Every structure is written in C-alpha cells, then in structure tokens.
Amino acid sequence: MNTRKRFSQLWNTYKGDVAVLLAIAVAYRILQAFGITCPIRFLTGVSCAGCGMTRACLCALHGHFDAAAFYHPLWVLVLPSLMVFLFRRKLPSSSVRVYGALVIAAFLVIYLIRLFDPSDSIVVFAPREGAIYRLISWLM
Question: pTM of the prediction?
C-alpha cells in the first residue's frame, strides 16, 4: 500500500479525534487570552484535579522534571493516556476501561492529597474567589 493511501486511511480513522483535541486546544488558548487558565477554578474558586498539568507538561518538555512533578505529579500519564485515547479502537475495550478507571482513581487520590495539603500552592479551595460566588453575591 502506498504512503498516500495509508495516510488517507489513517486520517479518515482519526480525523474526529484530532478535531476534538484541536478544539480543546483552541478553546483553552482562547480562555488563556482572557486570563482564564482553569475554567473550573475561575467559575468555582476551587482548583480542578488537573490544575498544574499544563505547567507540568511544559516543564517536562524543557527537561525540568522536578518542576513538572511539583506542578502535577501525574504529568507522566499524559502521553500514555493520549496514546490510549487515539488507539482505543484497536485496544480491547476492557483494557481501555480499566486504564481509564485507574487514571481517574489516581487523579482523585492525588487531588484529595493536594487539596488538603495547606502547603500546596497549586491546588486551592477558595470558593469566594469564584465567578459564581461573586455573581451571586452581587445579585443579592
């Protein structure tokens, strides 16, 4: 099979996935342009389970692995998770589900540890700083 035909088949298989990932990246970039780095934290004042992940990945790309672990200790799961997402149709569905459940469990455990650690400056619980609270306060 020639390269062009193979690329065409791959594109047809993955173009929906690529479109979703690009849409997320564009939406995230637009929010960043308005100073919103985490929409969940912006709205609620409470950090999300993924807070710090972008900075962690950027640090890892520059070879600063200690800083990456500081921003989010699960940064190492980004590439494997992306691969599982892209190749999920070729993997046994039970394996994909188990992997997904393990990743979610890991994120929840790390999130709770960081949320209750007063020295963690990345994950915060400040609902009064959220846009929803401020809007409700302004309306009342």
Answer: 0.74
